[in-house]
Design goal:
9 helices; single chain; 8-stranded mixed β-sheet; 4-stranded mixed β-sheet; kinase; 308 residues; Carbamate kinase; alpha/beta
Length: 308
């Protein structure tokens, strides 16, 4: 009998913990801590693992911009490089925990709409903060920049919505033939249709929304978003904060629309989970990374339900 398919979106804390520099050794060590849990889940489920790449692509892009003797790669190419790097680290961590498991890593392109409003209003920050005296130099690169008081200037890029996962059929064929598939890393490499092919664009796709699209297209039995909090909170950071054990998908989307969850953190996660649940009629979960086993089995975190 075939196993149920579960899509698990790993948050950034799976790779880099607070206070760490993000060295290769640190990231591999962090992944190794959860690899044993992934191995346990693989006994019961077919798994697709997605992941973020924000700090990694920011660091790599900074290397590209500051290395004088090597031609810099565009942002979308850096996204592809970090997809493969993080996929490799996940492979290493899991194969160390259980060498018998097959782990396939798929370099994944995600089509976006060139007319997406995000291209007219770049908002996703990447890379370091720059001092005032470099502003004119950076503007000559054609960058969009925003000023953060007390920190300096930072580049912002578009964050368009994911429309289509180009490697979907490849991923579908790997399910059942590999124990674990790693795909849509960092939200996917953003591309637009150009003639008979596709062209990479400098943008960042939200990884939770892209993961939600993947889980929906594959009709996965469950979609789990793992982060650094226990679930979805109301009044987060206030004395009245409380975690919600469950939400109806429609209610969750309404709360996102009303601005109840920050766009830079919990908002896209709630939206991604609710969209999956609305499309499939199946439960999604937002939970803490350290509770991965309980989250997948719906025993911990905030459950998003397909209420009528």
């Amino acid at each position: 009998m075939s196993k149920e398919l579960v899509v698990i979106a790993l948050g950034g804390n799976a790779l880099i913990r607070a206070g760490q520099r993000g060295t290769f050794e640190e990231q591999l060590s962090n992944l190794s801590k959860i690899a044993t849990y992934i191995v346990q889940l693989a006994e019961k489920y077919s798994l697709i693992i997605t992941h973020g790449n924000g700090p990694q692509v920011g660091n790599l892009y900074l290397q590209q911009e500051t290395t004088k003797d090597v031609p810099p790669m565009p942002l979308h190419a850096c996204g592809a490089m970090t997809q493969s790097l993080i996929g490799y680290m996940i492979q290493q961590a899991i194969s160390t925990a259980d060498p018998s498991l097959d782990v396939a890593v798929v370099t994944t392109r995600v089509e976006v709409d060139p007319n997406d409003p995000a291209f007219r209003s770049p908002s996703k920050p990447i890379g370091p903060f720059y001092p005032e005296d470099r502003l004119e130099e950076l503007k000559k690169k054609g960058w969009d920049l925003v000023h953060v008081p007390g920190k300096g200037w930072r580049r912002v890029v578009p964050s368009p919505l994911p429309r289509r996962i180009l490697e979907l059929n490849v991923i579908r064929r790997l399910i059942g033939n590999s124990d674990i598939v790693v795909a849509v890393g960092g939200g996917g490499i953003p591309v637009i249709k150009r003639g008979e092919g596709y062209e990479g664009v400098d943008a960042v796709i939200d990884k939770d929304l892209a993961s939600s699209l993947l889980a929906s297209e594959l009709n996965a039995s469950r979609f789990v978003i793992l982060t650094d909090v226990d679930g979805v909170y109301l009044d987060y950071g206030k004395p009245t904060q409380r975690v919600l054990p469950e939400l109806c998908a429609g209610e969750a989307l309404q709360m996102v629309g009303n601005g109840m969850f920050p766009r830079g953190s919990m908002g896209p996660k709630v939206e991604a989970a609710a969209l999956y649940t609305q499309k499939t009629g199946k439960v999604s979960v937002i939970s803490h990374l350290d509770k991965i086993l309980d989250a997948v089995d719906l025993r911990f975190g905030t459950r998003i339900l397909p209420c009528k």
